[in-house]
## 1
Amino acid sequence: MEVINFAETPSLVSRYMLEMRDAHIQRDAMRFRRNLQRVGEIMAYEISKRLSYRNVEVNTPLGRALCQSPADPIVLATILRAGLPFHQGFLNYFDSAENAFVSAYRRYKERGDTFDVLVEYMASPTIEEKTLILVDPMLATGSSMELGYRALLNNGTPARVHIASVIASQQAVDYVVKCLPQATLWVGAIDDSINEMSFIIPGLGDAGDLAFGEKLDR
């Protein structure tokens, strides 16, 4: 697996990451959601360089121009719920992509520090021989990403797979590299560890709560 870590080359992504991590700035939910979109837009642009293109002639007011258009059919898939603003960033650029959604969530056990990851819902077109871009802003253990991908395989086998995340733990990167070696991983930053509740350290907190408000844990 190829791993592209945006933190290794400072860019505007670094600024948006700073704002999403900052405990004061991130309290502005609208700004937090927009920063998720911005990182998604930049990653979409970088992924677009890996696509195949076809030549297309178009009529201009003054003649004909030879242009290029992506030739790869794209399915943009998202792990709910924190993935929605991140997904929108990709969709802003891949505006003709088909879309898929997977509900993968943690169900904590009685002790409270261990959990199972469950896939409860999926809506997806066929992904057979298409380019699959699977996005989730937080890659803590990699389990949700793997289960989401396995669920999507019920709808076909993609030609190419790109996985995108805002922040990943090194443990999750190692896990995804092992489980999904055929994919390319794009990540805004890789943090060293996770805590006993499997939250990324230093991370940024709960991306879903920061984007949409705190939820009741049941």
## 2
Amino acid sequence: MTFIDIPTEQTTAATDVVLAIVALLVCLLTYRAGKVNNPKKGKIWAWAFGLLAFAAMTGAVAHGFQMPARLNYILWQPLNLALGLTVSLFVVGVVFDLTRGHLPRFVLPLLITAGTLFYLVTLIFPGTFLVFILYEAVAMLFALIVYILLGIRNRVRGAWLMALGIFITMIAAAIQASESVQVHCIWDFDHNGIFHIVQIAGLLVLFAGLRKDLRKEEQ
């Protein structure tokens, strides 16, 4: 395989690599922060960020190299599954905070099933990212409402930062949905590359909120 020669695909691949690195770092730091005070919460979010890192790195390969269409299609299969499970575990983390750590047993298997069903839908409607955007939009709206309520009630430290991170993620999703968006800043970026950059910012804000809550006992 050789590197892709389309400028916007090159920047999409490059920003995917950066997103993967940031997500992996956040995964490890989240797990470490929750290990002492709240291991279950730390593991839920660490898995979500770890799957995001895997999806981003796979996306970097899919966007960054010239390859047969069949091979590109195969790469998108684990990527789509990882994205679906990332959103599912994100919602599990939200429900964990909503229930004050008393996560009902059915929630995890139910949402893992939902993430898998999302992947199956992508098989029916291949070649479009709209399915993921809709799936993510519903999850993010639910999460935003929950963390605003938790922030108002002062039940979760870092809830307002979580809400802000989710809002930024929703902006990123809106950019992703606008395929006509393009920016030239030294290099050419299309909606995919810009989406990755905004998502990185949202990811860092989310981690700041998580870290604030996971380390509350130490403080």
## 3
Amino acid sequence: MDLIQAIVLGLVQGLTEFLPISSSGHLLLLPALFGWEDPGAGFTAVIQLGTVLAVLIYFWKDLVAAVSAWWRSLYDKEAHKTKEARLGWAVFVGTFPVVIAGLLLEDQIDTAFRSSLLVAGMLIGVALVMWLAELVGKRNRDLESVSTKDGLIVGLWQALSLVPGASRSGSTIAGALFLGMDRATAARFSFLLSVPSVLGSGLYKLVKDRSELVEGGAMPTIVAAIMAFVSGYAAIAFLIGFLQRHSTAVFIVYRIALGCVIIALVASGIMK
């Protein structure tokens, strides 16, 4: 991988990690379209560390408050009643489904799931789920109302993002909308919930695939992670502001259109 490819993949990773259009799907499809080598699931997971850093910086105060309150709640029953502690427990519990599913399906994620048609199907399928969530969601809950049960349910939706094309933010925002959260709250909770799982996945892949990553050149991976941080931070700010005024309709239409294009490219033999 040369530095131009790393810059492009990093920018796309940051933008599509937080916009509900699937980062893993785009990182699988771009190399196929331009004739580049598949960077692999390890590269994808490691450069997500850049997007995690963007979330940490953007939501630093929220994260510190939630973690501190969660820690105090372990030995102080009264602390457990605070909204910060509830948010901390929601993120903690909500992380388990994706961790368990990720460990059980690790081989499939690295091989069988990296299919263009599967990506297309997930892009369209989750788009329809997002559309349904927009229709039935009451959108009358804010972040202060989030409970541990909410964390578990949205965490189950997050596990769906292990399949390329599903989108972590797309599946979790849809899950939060089904629970009655307003759109901006759904996005904020989605971003906060992503921190432990994406950080853990990135560090795990960094250690496990370190030899492969070094052989491919450490510099492209570092450059891609930096680009992912820059574009990811911008994407967070954009999406939260956008969803305060608009629905997710534009992303739903984009997902369906992209899925149809991919199917057409595979049918014509341009993509595998």
